[in-house]
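Narrative of activities, Objective 1.

The group set out to show that a structural description can be obtained from nothing but a protein's sequence at a throughput compatible with the screening campaign. Below is one input-output pair from the validation batch, recorded exactly as produced.
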Amino acid sequence: MQYTSYQKPSRKPGNTQGKMPLILIGIILAIVGLYIAYLLISPKLSKKPTKEVQKAVEQKPQADKNTIFIPSVGIQAGIEQGDINILDKGLAWHRLPDQGNPLKGGNMILTGHSFVWGYRPEEVKKKSIFYDLKNSKVGDEVVINWEGKQYKYRITKLKTVKPNAIEVEDQTSDPQLTIYTCTLGGAADGRVVVVAKPETKS
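Output recorded for this entry:
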């Protein structure tokens, strides 16, 4: 009787090497997705606590540093006049300065970014100063430090309007503060508008 030696069946070469590029691409896409998600929520994560903003409100106003505070939603930002480039500095832009300010009355108009894309979270946080403006409420306090003096307002209206609703910048006979920013859908989507009136002194 003749015996033949047993041979273990050979395995077909696997395609592990072929899958590696797909796995790497999947990992990279996941990391990129997580980073984008972090950028999107970074302004929310960096929101200043109400107590911290309130503490800043209680400091003596500086004559050379105009500032807006909305403690209830953690907003604190410098105010400057100029052109639209002010917004990219992470500041509130005082539009149409001849139309109004806390000292002369009229309609003081402030605008700022709600969300700005950037490569780094710090860049997004710095520029997205009015990210939480939409979360403010009627009755919330708004404080303006202006030329070394402090002025307090109360929000009387909060609304969303179309991008072409230029009437929000109309002059008013009574002193008023108008703050607006883009909705999170972007400049072509709409505007979040807050109207505040000076607090009456008792």
